[in-house]
Design brief:
By secondary structure, this protein is mainly beta. The strands form 10 sheets. Strands 31-32-33-34-35 form a 5-stranded mixed beta sheet, with helices on one face. It has a 4-stranded antiparallel beta sheet with strand order 1-2-3-4, with no helix packed on it. A hairpin with a 4-residue loop joins β16 and β17. The radius of gyration is 27 Å and the shape is globular. The two termini are about 35 Å apart.
Amino acid sequence: MNFIMKKHIFPLFFHIFLLIMTTLSLTGCGNSFPDFPTVPEEEKEDLPGTEDETGKSDAPAPFSHAGRQAAPGNTDYVFPETSPFIDDTGKSMQRDGSYLYSYYEGRLIRFDQETGKTDVLYQTAATHLLDFCLYENDIYFVERPGYDSLDDKDTCLMRIGKDGKNFALLQEDIINAGTFRDYTNYTIDLYDNIIYLLHNSHRYDNGDYITETSNVYYRLEPDGTVSEASEKETLYGMLPYRFSPVRNSDFPSFPYAMRNYGYFFIQDSQGTLYRMEPVSGVREPLGFHAEAVSRLSFSGDLIALYSYFDFDISLYSLTDKTFVEADFPFAESITYSATFPSKQGFFCCFTLWKQKSASEESVPCFTVLHILPDGSVETLFSDTDQALAGSIDDLVYRSDSCVDDGFFYFYNKNETRGRLMRLSLKEQRKPSPEELDTWSIWPASSPASVRAEERDDETAIGDAGSVSCSTTKLFLEEKTEADRLINRSLTEVYTDFDANVKSVIEEEEKQLEEDPEFYEGFDYAARYDFSLSVFLDYMDDDTVSFCCSYYQYYAYAAHGYYWNDYYVFDRKTGERLSFEDFAGDSSSILKTARPYVEKAAGWEFDQEMLLDISRFSLSEDGYTLYFAPYDIDCYAAGSFLITIPYEAFEKEL
């Protein structure tokens, strides 16, 4: 019944959607940058930032933290050439000698490539955000808990030895980089004994895209403690007037660049890229605009620049400021994923879409290339048989992976287990990734076994209409009576969904039978689209929770609609559990939970909806409440999953 009622939302919000889309178009959504425009030599002297202190330009950079500075005088300063280096700072997997350090699903680990041994250095909840960097014999990391906050000060700075010893909490109650809903955390780096917690925030201002720094800094004291540092003490305090850090998030941070280059990169208000040596103040414009770069990677004096628009890669030399087009063989048939620096050039990993035959649809093929400094390209690996289908998730190997010493390292997981995998790029045979480490991703000493059933159907309605239906259904392996009862409840959900889709098909067929020309008044196909994807949301020894994620699009509607329903079960009895079963009476729940929802909401709401059993679930950090579009804010704001820490209810009790 709930499913049928949802469909009547669309007529009510059709005009609202059109208004939203018009507003978004006026605020700059959909703008794109041209591919690598160069700066003509005759124009460089007229660019903002090249004039002296009395120059006429009054166009400031999007943000600039320093006051007016005298422009550097004439100098013969030559920026140093840089040897090839590998620095993975900022990534979730970092190389250090024979070791790989990585963070994934709550585990900070060290993997020895020579011995194959895995050491868990630090473990936390899988929902926590954690970024780390390697510095001398230690690992410095910043952690953000997986719950929402009323004061937005839950981030902690910590240190641990590379061997997992000598853990130290350096600073707590740090202001968060953003809400947990944004899934943002600081990246961390060190230079000259200052710890940089780096974060850029983004917004639109009268249609202009604005990036602003929200960095936090700490000085590393001789005794190993930290003290707060002001920005004027840092590299960011050395920015010249009218300049800002490069707004492309893939450019190296100031500490990264200083550590590897001896200078850093900045941009002026027009997006022109410069390199600057901070002690002398010398700066030099480079041959392209920073904002024209879709994605990039650094290796010594080479920058690999990737264009989303032309699907190609160019190599830019910082030494002689020239471009070399990589001999990239696949044009527009790829989905770009990641590049990794090597001692010579770059490794490029992506999904290549191929057709087995002219009559078949394209299928994904995982491919690894080695791009050499002269632009030549060597194919190291290409999964032409699609043997890795489902094993390598292109959303995962963007940062939780690397290519090193002839192997591709990556993470993946199923409903209950996480895995660290290694794929050999040396063997020309059918690929078979090696499992290096496996662990339970849930806080359960005895996780339940789960099986999935997937199905895709499409039903034609006359010559112009169709109803598509996609389902992923989960079931527990029935080892206990409670498992059987839980499966019975899930089956009722699936049966209800299938019945509702069937009723839509019957209604359309009846409509077409009564009026054979019904679809002819429309200039596009009458396509209906429904999906139900069920995944395991949480599991411990006492409870198991499933998320039923729905999507529906009715033909000729302005847009589709989506929502989630949650089902929390007692693993011992099979009974469905509510918020009250965990946190006491409804009045105390509303008193504790309402401020967290009010903080996120865009408008007033009926507080009784907080007790809706279909919104409720659990996590390692707290109780969660889900709100679909329109529940507490507009459609454009999306859905909300608000996690209220368990400690908040303990304080109430």
